[in-house]
Each structure stands twice: as C-alpha cells, then as structure tokens.
Specification:
The chain has 208 residues and is α+β, with helices and mostly antiparallel strands. The protein is 29% helix and 30% strand. It has an 8-stranded mixed barrel with strand order 1-2-3-4-7-8-6-5. Keywords: Hydrolase, Signal.
Length: 208
C-alpha cells in the first residue's frame, strides 16, 4: 500500500502545483491589464508615453475598439514576443499612429485577437491615439474591406504598402491548437479623416 500512497501523494502534489501556477498566471495577467490601462489613462491626460511598470520595455500607444463585438483593448508599442504576452501591439514595419500609411497591429490568436474570428466585412474598427504634435487625443474609424486566411509568406504581399489603412494580423486557426500554420489578416480602410476623440470614449482608460 505504501507505493500506492506515495503515487497518490505525488499526483495530488502535481495537481496542486499546476492549479497554483494557473492561478498565479491568471492573477498576473489581470494585474498587467490594470497597469496597462492606467498607463494609457496617464497618456490620455498628459500625452507622454508611460510604461505600465518600471522595467517594461513597452508602453501603450493606442486604444482599439470594435463596437459590434464589444471589443476594447489597449495597444502596446512594438510587437515583440514579450510585449504580445500582455496585449495587442503595433508592428514596427507599419506606419505610426496618425501617420500616412498602413498601421499594422498584431495579437495572439488565443487571447487578444481571438474575438477577430467573429469579425465580418463592413464592421467598424475604431483606433484612438494621442497626437503629440497637436497635443490632443485623436480617433479614426476604419471599415473592414477584406478578411483572408493566408500562409505566412503571403502576408507581405497582401498587406498594403502605402495607402492609409489598418491591418490586423494573428495566427490561424484560432484557439489553443497545437499548430498555427496560417495567418488571419484583416484589412480595413478609413471611413473618413481622424477626429477629436469624444470624452466618453476615453473613460475606460482614464478611470482605471
């Protein structure tokens, strides 16, 4: 009986360890989200970049909303693997927020960009950013023109090179599949020029 008791004890210990780790990671993600939204709220107020924690090598640069899906996330600067663990992020290969050209945003298929699987053509996507030159918070609405599932090699030829546009990129298929050999690409065009962001649309980031 002793070997059986040892085995059961080991199984219980392993289960408890995995549960504790899952709870820790979940709590860490929740705390990171709060700190990121607070940092964005500070940027909304003073226009300066604010790292969400002292040792962060990124900072919030925009707020991304998809009204029909109830999607609302803060975008971080630089789509590095470390940054993407905490939220959607801007790719350096694309245009800067508020600059002419194609703004490219990436996110994980298992979390930040998982809701994109419910996106439809003609859906509206709203992007907020702080215009440092004008010292004001701006917002631009885009309309989804095209949604494609392609190979990684095809992404470069699909993404607009110079036209004002917004491109969202994530791996495919969505969810916790062991492999993600394809890319899910959303291309959207401006529905009009940028405008001053309405105060009510800033509330989430500024109040946290």
């Amino acid at each position: 009986m002793k070997p059986l008791r040892i085995f059961i004890a080991l199984v219980l210990f392993a289960g408890a360890s995995l549960t504790a780790r899952a709870m820790y990671l979940h709590a860490k993600a929740d705390l990171a989200s709060v700190l990121i939204h607070r940092a964005w709220g500070k940027t909304v107020v003073d226009g300066r970049p604010h790292p969400p924690w002292p040792w962060a090598d990124t900072y919030p640069v925009a707020r991304l909303r998809i009204p029909r899906l109830g999607y609302d996330e803060v975008v971080l600067e630089g789509a590095t693997p470390r940054t993407l663990a905490f939220g959607p992020a801007r790719l350096f290969s694309g245009a800067g927020l508020g600059e002419p050209g194609n703004v490219e945003l990436a996110g994980h298929r298992t979390s930040w960009f998982r809701p994109l699987e419910n996106l439809d053509a003609r859906d509206e996507i709203q992007v907020q950013w702080f215009d440092a030159r004008k010292r004001e918070l701006r917002e631009r609405t885009y309309t989804v023109d095209d949604i494609r599932i392609v190979t990684p090699e095809e992404v470069t030829s699909l993404v607009p090179a110079s036209d004002d546009s917004l491109t969202l990129i994530t791996c495919y298929p969505f969810g916790h599949h062991p492999r993600s050999p394809q890319r899910f690409v959303v291309i959207a065009s401006p529905a009009g020029p940028s405008r001053l962001a309405e105060p009510s649309r800033v509330a989430k980031g500024a109040q946290l």
